[in-house]
Amino acid sequence: VPIAELPSGINLCHEAFGDPADTALLLMHGLGSQLLLWEVGFCEGLAATGFHVIRYDHRDSGCSTILEEGSAYTLSDQAADAVGLLDFLGVADAHVVGMSMGGMIAQTFAVEHPDRCRSMVSMASNTGNRDFGRPSGPALEAMLAPAPDDPTAAVEKELTDRRLWASVWHDDDHARAIFAAYAERSVQPRHAFERQITAAMA
């Protein structure tokens, strides 16, 4: 999978689908997730409708740069990463779609870089208003609990956690396959996960 080397020193793992001449559609995943959240069939389906689809790992996620312990950043920094990725790819502007934390990054991108944003979709996300859209107690406890070091146990924890907020269409086998692919590709260090939470909550 290609790596974009940004001037900031952050390297972003990314993958594109469709014709680069088409209008770009940038997909931003959520907390503790990876670009694999946006499955290949989904991306190819969007590309077939005439979009140049780009999925990527945020900093501290997947195969992108994992920063040293003690580092810190903001949603603005993560939005700037997205701009840097577009620059690297030679893309002037894009429709931006974000899920959960990715939705918060997408909102920040739209506000701070309006000339690069054709439109913005924020799903299952929040504006930063802590009085709105808060997770339930059990869901928050599950999200903040450290993941086991063992990849198999980590997959099972992720699956158990997701059942707390899954939709009626949730499929355990499908979800397990996705989380196993995450674990095989890259295991997110606890300090990286905590930095993402801190940025989202700031």
TrEMBL record:
Gene3D superfamilies in alphabetical order: alpha/beta hydrolase
Residue ranges constituting the AB hydrolase-1 domain according to the UniProt record: 24-129
InterPro entries: AB_hydrolase, AB_hydrolase_1, AB_hydrolase_fold
Protein's name in the database: AB hydrolase-1 domain-containing protein
Organism ancestry: unclassified sequences, metagenomes, ecological metagenomes
